[in-house]
Predict the 3D structure of the following.
Amino acid sequence: MEGASKRDVLSHLSQLEVQTRSRRNQPQQHYRVKELKAKVEALMLQRDQLKAEIHILKSLHKLRSSLDHQRDGDEDEAMEVGSENSDLLRLMGKHIQLRDLRHAHHLIGGYDVVKTKRGRGACLSLPTAYEGVCLDTYNLEIDLKPAVRINQHNIPPFIPLSSLAEQSDLQSDLRGFLDALSRHLNAFAGRKQQLKLVKEQHKSVDVMESNILCSRLVLMLTVPGEKQAVLCVLEYTDHTRCLPTRVHFESNDEKLPDSALWTTNCSLFLETPVHKALTAMKKTGFIV
């Protein structure tokens, strides 16, 4: 009886040990599930973007085919859809042709140029855009004779205009200078637009800090459940890009920033525009 009693006690202790291990693994499994959900959300975001691009390309191909039929004399067949759709088709066709011309203009390095001072100078326009939305346009007036030099401009003072001019030989490589300047302006416009979208789309996220160059951004995020606050600091040290080069989190819970869960979120911010990264985190329940 004593031997049986010992076996019962050992069996009971073994069951308790198994239950304890199971409870310890549950939080790890929970975090692992959330980590996988975050990865899935990021992949779904990329998938939706690719689907949208494919849909646009298919639509453009269909429109161009219809326009080719019109030019080949099959206009009556193309117009069977009705006069309203036909007018819309013509307008869209013209829009596509103009956009293609504009794209080709930029591919060959073309900038909008107006001659000034009877040919001794030129005024160049440098437009900026982000995700297909046209933003600010900047102007640069240069003297061409007797030597190429910058005269007047409305480039923001925090853009390193003089440094870019020194790095490029304006006399022989004006195109290189303009391309570098355009990259800086478009990257700044993109970061600025992302900040605007964060404020418009994510009311629960507090923008604690941002500078005029939009090269540093501090956001206050709220973790659901205990309503724990997390500071998200994004630094953009490469001023020719719209994505941050460094992301780190700060929290009262010192273990949180280094957890596998938030390491995934860090990668998400490094690879995705900030407003889209926040949307993905909300969908997976990381933040409110």
Q: What stands out?
A: The longest strand covers residues 133-143.
